[in-house]
Design goal:
Elements (H helix, E strand, L loop, with lengths): L2 E4 L4 E4 L3 E2 L6 E2 L2 H7 L2 E10 L5 E13 L2 E9 L6 E2 L1 H7 L1 E4 L4 E4 L10
Parallel strand pairs: 3-8, 4-7
Antiparallel strand pairs: 1-2, 1-6, 5-6, 6-7, 9-10
């Protein structure tokens, strides 16, 4: 998956990013978050990794663009972070993984969803 990460200072294109349906949040490298001017949230959060190890991660607000869609999302980072797009970002973009076809597909029309 190719995405563009956007922040207050600019944007950066990331190519061949892993999509992990087992990851709640998106994980990005600190350097990318600082380069684009992502908004740092005021606290750290504990994250349990796939191997059971727990780490403290910084959280940032960013905008992710995929093809012709973009949405705000939370990105986490910690030393040694591997870049991964998680399910909350996929949901915000209106995209899901089709495991049979091994591809991404749209689940709603382009635009933000807001139901009350």
């Amino acid at each position: 998956m190719d995405v563009v990460v956007k922040g207050e200072k600019g944007e950066e294109k990331l190519e061949n990013v892993i999509v992990d349906t087992g990851a709640t949040y998106t994980f990005l490298k600190r350097e990318t978050l600082e380069k684009v001017g992502a908004v740092k949230l005021p606290t750290k959060v504990e994250v349990e990794l796939g191997d059971g190890k727990k780490v403290l991660a910084n959280a940032y607000g960013v905008v992710i663009r995929f093809e012709d869609r973009e949405a705000p999302t939370i990105a986490l980072t910690f030393p040694g972070t591997k870049v991964v797009i998680g399910v909350e970002t996929l949901e915000a973009l209106g995209v899901r993984v089709d495991p049979v076809a091994n591809k991404l597909e749209y689940v709603r029309p382009k635009g933000m969803a807001y139901f009350y």
